[in-house]
Amino acid sequence: MYIEGKHRYFVNNKGKDTDDLKDDFGLVDLTHIDIYSGLKEKMGNDHRDKMWFKYNGTDYLLKSTIALEDTIGNYCSYGEIIMEEACKLLHMPAAHYELVKYNDKNGELKEGVISESFVGDKSKITTLFDVSVDKIDLYDNSDITDYNIVIDCLYNYLKEDKNNDLSEEKIDEIILNFKKQLMDDIVFCAVDNHSQNYGLITEDNKIKNIAPSYDREAILMLDMDIDTLLDIADNEDLFYDMINSQCSRILPLDKIDDYPENEPWKPMMAVLLEDERLCDYYYNEILSLDMEQIFENIKKRKIYLDDDLKRISKLAFESRIKQINKEFLPKIEKNITSYNEREA
């Protein structure tokens, strides 16, 4: 279920839209609900709530804001909202999130995000980790996964699935969409995009497409504590260097030594841009993104963004775009010219 348009209902609220449950800051108020009575699966830890619960027959994922000791917090929950709205403008699928406030099991007021499950009774998600677990060799005992292995495993899985009999054209479409998600994650400096945060949606045992983008709270350095983030943002050179160091967790390990160690996103971007269709996607879709439009769309959802959050998000996005253009724009423009000449 790809979320677009009208907001989903989170609770049985006599027909009211979720907008009517929002406070002045855009947080859906769940404080009147005992979410623990419908607890299905707890995945969090002592520092954070993360759990699936059922309410009125519907499954929801609740994630509290990441707790950072001795800080005023971070903007990570807003990362989900920003990424969702960016994906809409890029015509890419994304899970739908809302900011929430709720009472935890100790009665303490917490904030976070909630998302309706995008799979139903007849559908499921198969992650890229599931597809490639037997082949994955984590790089240098880290959580970095080799892009080449993931792509090979994904292709073989799609090709060999007896329930589907997918055409080469459909397989190519699915893999291209996965590559677009990878590119989106580079552009938005996603650092938690490991292989379990990508997947395939299956309905009635038949693969339909990639799963929507999900679990993208750690983008644009918004998972960093706010005080530190503001200090870094006041130093233009330091902020630029910090953005340059933000790295995806899926990388082409055979290319990792081709670029400086402090610019770890570049090998993945270089490989993606070998596909002229992705050059076209970057040039005509991503470069058209406007953070001010994203902020305006979030405002229409009655969600408040403070000025520091908007300034940092915009600065981080524009810094990464500047880095990509500096390194790759001539190659992108050349590939697009060749692509358009063949298509003409």
Q: Would you mind describing this structure in some detail?
A:
This protein is an alpha+beta fold. It has three domains: 18-116, no CATH class; 123-210, no CATH class; 226-343, no CATH class. The chain is built from ten helices and eleven strands. It has helices spanning 76-89, 128-132, 147-160, 168-187, 226-233, 236-244, 266-272, 276-284, 291-300, 307-343, and strands at residues 28-29, 39-42, 50-55, 58-64, 98-103, 109-116, 123-127, 145-146, 199-203, 206-210, 250-251. It has a six-stranded mixed sheet with strand order 1-5-6-4-3-2, covered by helices on one side. A three-stranded antiparallel sheet has the order 7-9-10. Helix 4 packs across helix 8 and helix 8 crosses helix 10 (307-343).
Distance between the termini: 35 Å
Number of domains: 3
Question: How many helical elements?
Answer: 10
Question: How would a crystallographer describe the biggest sheet?
Answer: 6 strands, mixed
Oligomer class: single chain
Helix content: 25-40%
Count of distinct strands: 11
- The ordered H/E elements are EEEEHEEEHEHHEEHHEHHHH
What is the global morphology?
A: globular
Q: Which structural class best describes the helix and strand composition?
A: alpha+beta
Instruction: Kindly provide the radius of gyration, computed on alpha-carbon positions and rounded to a whole number of angstroms.
Output: 20 Å
